[in-house]
Write a structure and sequence with these properties.
This protein is an alpha+beta fold and 249 residues long. It has three helices and 18 strands. The longest helix has 36 residues.
């Protein structure tokens, strides 16, 4: 009976953690470049160990919390510094503690012509250097699908000034979520250059969270969580009866 109680408790804890994960996804349904989090469950006991030692009772927990990197919808804005990547890839940023990766491409220029995120991080080129664009009307900035940045002068002459650093990684599981929809690459992961990325100028990628799916998952997990709680209350009631029986002379 004790094993059954702890089995129900482990299930309730895992479902509560997943509800927190779903809540975070729903809170970011409108966040540019956000990638939904997902979880997978696992049983702690398997095969003969579960059947013989635990008498069929099992324990569950969250095995892994991972990120869904599928491409979200791209909304056209026509703003020249709004950029999106169609397909695989990340923009590279200079974070406070090293290089970061993001799909959030609503960039801006500061007074010195540096290309920045809305939180002030520098956007890097294909040589890991900050991108600087000569002072010009933003409508005269052109960014090709391969990430090449060009400006037009008053005479209509086009000059290339840099190329966006657009890369992917060999193992997405090595990407750790950081602040402002950025990711850091953990030990063992390797950056992989993309020779021909598909950069979209004048568009931003919105969150890949599907609200209908998340709401359905929330309802399902809430019901499962409530079931586990009912089981725990039942075990508590049985334990009280056992205590009463134990006091009989």
């Amino acid at each position: 009976m004790v094993s059954g109680k702890y089995s129900a408790l482990s299930g309730a804890v895992a479902r509560e953690q997943n509800l927190d994960n779903i809540s975070a996804n729903l809170a970011n349904v409108g966040t540019i470049g956000y990638k939904r989090s997902n979880v997978s469950f696992e049983s702690l006991l398997r095969g003969a160990q579960q059947i013989k030692q635990a008498h069929g009772i099992n324990y569950s927990r969250i095995r892994q919390n991972y990120t869904d990197f599928s491409t979200g919808p791209i909304n056209k804005t026509e703003a020249p510094l709004d950029l999106a990547i169609n397909g695989n890839g990340f923009f590279k940023l200079q974070g406070p503690n090293g290089i970061l990766y993001t799909r959030k491409g609503d960039f801006t220029l500061n007074a010195d012509g540096q290309l920045l995120t809305t939180t002030g991080m520098q956007v890097l080129d294909d040589a890991n250097s900050p991108i600087s664009i000569p002072k010009t009307n933003t409508n005269r900035i052109s960014i090709s699908s391969q990430g090449m940045i060009s400006v037009l002068d008053s005479n209509g002459t086009q000059t290339e000034v840099g190329r966006l650093g657009v890369v992917t990684v060999d193992d997405p599981l090595k990407l750790k979520k950081e602040v402002d929809t950025t990711f850091s690459l953990q030990a063992g992961g390797q950056e992989v250059p993309i020779d021909r990325p598909e950069v979209v100028q004048g568009g931003i990628e919105i969150s890949n969270v599907n609200m209908v799916t998340e709401m359905a998952d929330m309802i399902n997990n809430q019901r499962t969580f409530e079931t586990y709680n009912k089981m725990l209350k039942s075990y508590a009631a049985i334990a009280e009866k056992q205590d009463d029986l134990g006091t009989l002379a």
